[in-house]
Specification:
- With 240 residues, the protein is mainly β.
- The relative contact order is 0.13.
- The protein is elongated and about 65 Å long.
- The protein has two helices and 18 strands.
- It has two domains: 140 residues, OB fold (Dihydrolipoamide Acetyltransferase, E2P); 94 residues, Copper binding periplasmic protein CusF (OB fold (Dihydrolipoamide Acetyltransferase, E2P)), CATH 2.40.50.
- The two termini are 33 Å apart.
Length: 240
Amino acid sequence: MKKIIIALLAVAVLTAGGAILANNDNNGKDSIKPNISDVLKSDLKQRIQIDETSSGNMAWITGAKITEISGPSTSTPNLIKVKVFGQDYKIGVEAGTNVVRQYWGKSEIDLSEFSVGDIINVYGALDSADYFLIRAKTVRNVSIQKLHAIISGTILSISSSTSSFVIEARKTGTSTVSVKTDANTKIYSGEKVKSFSDLKTGAKVTVRGTWDRAKSYVQALLIRMKPFEIEEEDVEKGND
């Protein structure tokens, strides 16, 4: 396998903040010193590499910022546009693409969790006809974090139309937390199975579920109403 580092991109790092300046050193020889006063720290973390293999050229991109997303409802489904060192690239997301969050938890193939401005890492095949199109095998969105969480608090408001409620939480770093429920959410009071309609404003609950930092809500897997025994309070349990 032959590895190719695109030289143009290395030059782009040097010139990202301005023109390359030619200076004369003490020995009378010309030296090249870049003017990088305006280079963003995020740009310095970007990288692109092409590996030449028997089955074609494979591309690695890290630190790319999303500039545009085309979803299933558009004429170009599941296409991400990014910038790397100021150069535009297209990332094709297909049925077999592994789409994951920062901690490798599975994300949606329709890119519903992705947003313009997110930072992604990509591995895939470089299109043979379009060298700025990568047909992705893996897309990792390092801007999406989801944590397994246990949060306790008092219900402040309930929305039956969206099957969600807001609690005043303790020890979470925020005064309130939105909680979403669905058909998979289990609700208990002691050992008795309850339903969403049994939740009342002012009730104390403990919620176990997935905390979405990007969208600031908890997708509940388990809700325990008072009376309950709190084994752990407000503890984040692992990453996804």
